[in-house]
Amino acid sequence: MSAADSPIAAGRGLCSCHVCQLVSRSTGTSRAQYCPRCGARLHLRRPGSVQRCWALVIASYILYVPANMLVMMETGSLISYRKDTIVSGVVHLWRTGSWMIAVIVFVASVAIPLLKLFSLTLLLISVQRKSTWHPQQRTRLYRLVEAVGRWSMLDIYVVTLLAALVQLGSLAIVKAGPAAIAFGAVVVLTMLATMEFDPRLIWDPLQKEEFHD
Which structural domains are found in the chain, ordered by start? Predict the structure, then answer.
């Protein structure tokens, strides 16, 4: 199969702008090309995207530990005072009958960030190994990770809302603990890692395989 017959855009000399998504034809020269619509520099693939994505994912794994081990929220009143991590807060909500809230917090604050990290790790390993395994499913996985990323901030929103609603002078106090900073950093880093990953790399090994055929 020749390059002109390739179903892959790069094989036909076409380049998609990573900013406005306009598809332009590459000149094939060493000179830098720029998008005719938005002016961004054009690349067939984002330079160093895998390395930057790995750095962000590894940093997220490191920060995920203190985000779940340190205190997320401190609540106090004239009668009692509690310090809760994310997991202990989920357990407390479950035991007090707030099952739905416990499930939402667990999914948004524990399960989703971890699944995002596992998914990005799988995608990075697969593109580095030039795998041709289920490219459509891996592309859907990337789109799913991209779509659900913003919901990981739910736990921070809960702490913020509680701090605003429950602060009643000296009667009660709700404040975020040190884990909130680590957790917020994990969410931001995973979102940046998702943005850095170039999903077009998933399809490159398939193009090479077609050329060999």
Answer: 1-44 (no CATH), 48-212 (1.20.140)
